Amino acid sequence: xxxxxxxxxxxxxxxxxxxxxxxxxxxxxxxxxxxxxxxxxxxxxxxxxxxxxxxxxxxxxxxxxxxxxxxxxxxxxxxxxxxxxxxxxxxxxxxxxxxxxxxxxxxxxxxxxxxxxxxxxxxxxxxxxxxxxxxxxxxxxxxxxxxxxxxxxxxxxxxxxxxxxxxxxxxxxxxxxxxxxxxxxxxxxxxxxxxxxxxxxxxxxxxxxxxxxxxxxxxxxxxxxxxxxxxxxxxxxxxxxxxxxxxxxxxxxxxxxxx
Length: 259
What we know:
alpha/beta; disordered C terminus; Acyl_Trfase/lysoPLipase; Malonyl-Coenzyme A Acyl Carrier Protein, domain 2; globular; disordered N terminus; 5 strands; 8% strand
């Protein structure tokens, strides 16, 4: 189901921002085998690009040297991607499906996977390659000048991929428009222009979106939504990260991950 009817159309928001805290997602390991199996699959695909196994870093004890690796770009990006893909597969196994997806900054690749632009193998190759190139850069703060060279190398990797047209409507956070054939251009994924979140949210609102589900380590985008929506309409929108409520929908007993 999409959460239609009085709640309108459903948008999945794949956010970026701060690196996940150690242990983020642990509560979902018991929510269904789909989450655990998907997380294992994605982490196994990303591990060859990383210095340590990704799950060991994601679920390391807080305050340890291993957990501190999440503050590096080389682990933060893969951790967010793995978490988002596993959450996406989980809620889909519960019967909740998006009508449209939006990826914000580092969340673009998970949104592209959800929209069918990249296979999981291709998306993991892109995320893993970028993580390897970024090396020990910190997850916050200004990027050093050598980032331009890193992005050039990343672009060469993107040029080897074979993206398809989105099978789900995919809205770009930079252009604030639905995307199509431009997903085949490596430069599209390298854009560093200012994010136009308010315009993108406005587009989704005008298309009938009334339910917003943010996937990732937190609720940064849904907390920003009231600032982006027309005055007087914020109270009518369902901003949900209630996993128990989502699980109670049709398909909650499904034990297999969707393709």
